[in-house]
Description:
CATH topology of the largest domain: D-Maltodextrin-Binding Protein, domain 2
CATH class of the largest domain: Alpha Beta
Number of helices: 9
Shape: rod-shaped
Amino acid sequence: MTKVVSIELRDLRWAIAAAEHRSLRQAAEVLNIRQSTLSRALRDIEHHLNAVLFERTTGGTSPTVEGREFVEAAKRIVEDTDAIIARLKKRSRGESGKLIVGVHASLLAGNLRATLIEHHQRFPDVEIYLIDGSSDKLISYLATSAIDVAFVVEGSHRWQGKSLSVWSERVVVALPNDHLLAKHDVVYWSDLKAETFLLPQRGPGPEFLRLLIGKLGCPEPDRLLRHDVSLDRFLTLVGSGWGILLVLEGATGGIFPKVVFREVHDADGPTRLSFRAYWRNENSKPSLQTFLGLLRQRYPDLSADPADR
């Protein structure tokens, strides 16, 4: 049966120092230990291995052939161990790892885009994976732990976990550039009564439908063209004259052929939808905690109990 030799990581570091400095006195000074302690530790290693690792002369201490082989192996072990420890420490501090974020707003401009950019600049080793969906779908994903945090429009969905009010976005209408309303700086809900609307099935589509019902009354089914496609495809349809499209201001950061954007107002000014971030109480993932810390810095909840911030 092969005897197991036990050598501590500290001993490997000491052996490396002795080989690099070629002087037990200098190595001991760097390690901040007694020279006799270092000498005894090296002899214990040699005893365990039944090999002479260092040649000791009046001119100093230098590794033997076996010693050089041992020190090279020790360096690899120490470097690998230090790298593992550093990675685990970064992960425990939330500076690396993975974070799954549910979104249903455009990232072309606006607060969501700015938040994700700042987080990536602060924590480039955190991998953020984005999932798109309606608010109800994202809340259901959150409840089953499929995502870590969701940014959705405040609505009627019930949520027993934590949430934070973050930002609001103005409601904007995308129009063909030759539309009569494109000549106006802003449009009013009353201007849109006779229009045909393109309605997304994903993202904030349900919120837009509630807006249309609330602002214009229940729209006729033939004036709502529902599609389950991405925003760029919808805007292509707008530019082609299929209809007009309600979007949030974050979608106005791009340039789309033959499409213009105008804010939608009522008597009180621009229409806005408010967003909240939602997450589970039980989710203690470090990467989520650093992300929430950034959110609280950018969007402090002044109405909350200080203990809950």
